[in-house]
Each structure stands twice: as structure tokens, then as C-alpha cells.
Write a structure and sequence with these properties.
alpha+beta; two-stranded antiparallel ribbon; 6-stranded mixed sheet
Length: 189
């Protein structure tokens, strides 16, 4: 877990358009965070911190690759990542994160951005991630083929039972079919 301390930043010292923090992120980062979606990766991340009116704007940029399970065969697959995201940080009495604004103590504006960096990476992974066609595990592809329902044929196969409604097909001749709004009354009144 000591590797995560390198993501602890003093916002006052980091603020400025000419300052950029850089990290290389690998498997140790994901292991130290106990990440479940992403366990392996090879990424480069940068962070710029800007200060304006007592608040901060964090601009993350991440490029590289992560390993995620394929949605089709569950085997690991490489997924390219390239993203830029922004977070807002304010100073206040109670440190916290409400989803829109991260709040740090006004008298000690430090923040460990490791988890925020992980969220930036995780949000860049597409919702649906699968190997290109034909590159999934052949064992899993066979298993899926055996257990996937096949669409029913449009016409019955030779020797198949006829439809129970087949007898009704010739009930009305095309010219004898009742017309909408026209009633035939056979009663003698």
C-alpha cells in the first residue's frame, strides 16, 4: 500500500498551469487498490491542478492499455484506454466526496488521487468489451454454441407434425369471407 502514497498531493504546491504530475501505472497500482474490474494495466497518467477562487480543478489524462475479462468468453483481453477527465475540489470543514465535488480540509489541502485516477481509468473502459470475432477462447465458443438456442425454422421440416390450425385454413373461401360491418341473419323472425 505504500506505493499509493506517491499519489498524495498538496494542492497548493501542485496548482499552476506550468506544473504537471506524471505517473506510470502498472499491476501494482490495481493490486494495492484491490480493484476488481481492472487487475492489470500499463498506462501513463498526467495530472494538472488549477486553482481559482478557493477551489481547484484537476485535469487527468490517461493513455495505455488495461486487461479486462471478455464479456463473451471471460478470458482476459487487452483494452486500449485514452481519456481526459476533470474533477472539482473545494476546501471546507468536512472532507468528503459527493460525486460532483471533492472536499478537502481548508487548513490542509492535500488529496490522495489514487482512487480518483482509478475511476478515470475504469470509466474509460467500454461497457461492452469483447475479443474481435474469432479470437475468443475456442473452449468457451464451443460451450456457448452448444447451449445457445437456435432460431426456429420458418417452415416445418420434413416429417414434422403439421400445425393444429392447418384444418382451419380452407374454412372460408376468399369470396365467402364475412365483410366487416356486414352481418348475415339466418333467423326467421
Amino acid at each position: 500500500m505504500e506505493t499509493l502514497t506517491r499519489f498524495e498531493i498538496d494542492l497548493n504546491q501542485a496548482a499552476g498551469a506550468d506544473k504537471e504530475l506524471r505517473w506510470h501505472i502498472g499491476d501494482t497500482f490495481f493490486g494495492d487498490l484491490d480493484a476488481t474490474l481492472i487487475e492489470h494495466g500499463d498506462l501513463d497518467a498526467t495530472l494538472r491542478v488549477y486553482r481559482a477562487a478557493g477551489a481547484y480543478r484537476l485535469e487527468f489524462a490517461v493513455t495505455g492499455e488495461v486487461s479486462v475479462p471478455c464479456d463473451r468468453c471471460l478470458e482476459p483481453m487487452r483494452q486500449a484506454i485514452g481519456t481526459r477527465q476533470t474533477r472539482r475540489v473545494a476546501c471546507g470543514d468536512m472532507p468528503g466526496d459527493d460525486g460532483d465535488v471533492i472536499t478537502v480540509a481548508a487548513d490542509d489541502p492535500t488529496l490522495n488521487v489514487a482512487w480518483h485516477l482509478y475511476e478515470v481509468i475504469a470509466l474509460a473502459v467500454p461497457i461492452h468489451h469483447v475479443h474481435p470475432e474469432g479470437q475468443c477462447s475456442s473452449d468457451m465458443a464451443e460451450l456457448l454454441a452448444r447451449h445457445t438456442a437456435q432460431p426456429a425454422a420458418a417452415t416445418p421440416a420434413a416429417g414434422a407434425a403439421a400445425s393444429p390450425f392447418a384444418a382451419l385454413q380452407g374454412l372460408f373461401a376468399p369470396d365467402a369471407a364475412p365483410q366487416p360491418g356486414h352481418h348475415t341473419d339466418n333467423s326467421n323472425t
